[in-house]
Amino acid sequence: MNGPARLEVRELVVSFGGLTAVDDLSMTVQPGDIVGLIGSNGSGKTTLLDAVSGLVPAASGTVLVDDEDLADYLPEERAAFGVVRSFQECRLFPELSVEDTLLITEDARKSSDVLSATMHLPWARRVERAKRKAVDGVIASFGLEQFRYHQTRHLSTGTRRVVDLAAIVLARPRLLLLDEPTAGIAQREAEAFIPLLRRLQEVTGATVLIVEHDVPLVFELCSTVVVMQTGKVVASGPPEAVRRDRKALDAYLGASDEALLASGPLEGAADQSPGRAGP
């Protein structure tokens, strides 16, 4: 399967005991779109990503990728459809260098048997050269050359997240589920993630569903913004329409004009630029 995937969620319900985390939610993400999920803590955003990736079971409803019902597929089997999910905390090996971390990621996708590699058989050498070429490519694409031989434990949080994005590229995603890619990083590093995430989408061509608390980032990056509250979709549409939906933004931002204006002017408000620090 090639090209970006189409995601359709129909009447999805996810419950934990007596708590309904996702409540009869339906949405469609078209191939190649970048869709942002925003909402307060507990609104069901991450649970939705978990349900799509198969980490939590649905009580009812349907998740389809390219019209294929994923109900009976385990998370690792969904990867065969190109469903790749990131997590709020980067899961990297602290003792490994950036290069070795990325080589392991590529090896998981395209491994050669130990005997062939040990004997340096021609086809095994070709596979190894292809792996290194792929790793060299993502290191160059994401500006990681200066960190190539650094252990990941010595990198800043922001740089570790860039390594995580590079590893995602090597996974060849068709549907990419990003959970808080800027969580825990400095504002200056967070600002650099907009071009990085655009680059990620350009390189992979993947459909992207992103959960993010950085509202200005979502409104600048995404073609569609979805606002969630208590497991339901409150509003959905282009950023310029959603940022003027006072009811929807009140549900997320608590009617804070300062927070609202961080994403752009409200209808009838004085024109202001987003409250973002300079580069």
Give the helices and strands, then pairings.
Elements: E1 7-16, E2 19-29, E3 34-38, H1 45-53, E4 60-65, E5 68-69, H2 75-78, E6 83-85, H3 98-109, H4 114-118, H5 122-141, H6 157-170, E7 175-179, H7 187-191, H8 193-204, E8 207-211, H9 215-221, E9 224-229, E10 232-237, H10 239-242, H11 246-253, H12 257-261
Parallel strand pairs: 3-8, 3-9, 6-7, 7-8
Antiparallel strand pairs: 1-2, 1-4, 4-5, 9-10
How would you sum up this structure, described in words?
This protein is an alpha/beta fold and 279 residues long. 38% of the residues lie in helices and 21% in strands. The strands form two sheets. The protein has a six-stranded mixed β-sheet, sandwiched between helices. Strands 2-1-4-5 form a four-stranded antiparallel β-sheet, with helices on one face.
Name some characteristics of this structure:
single chain; 279 residues; alpha/beta; six-stranded mixed sheet; four-stranded antiparallel sheet; 10 strands; 21% strand
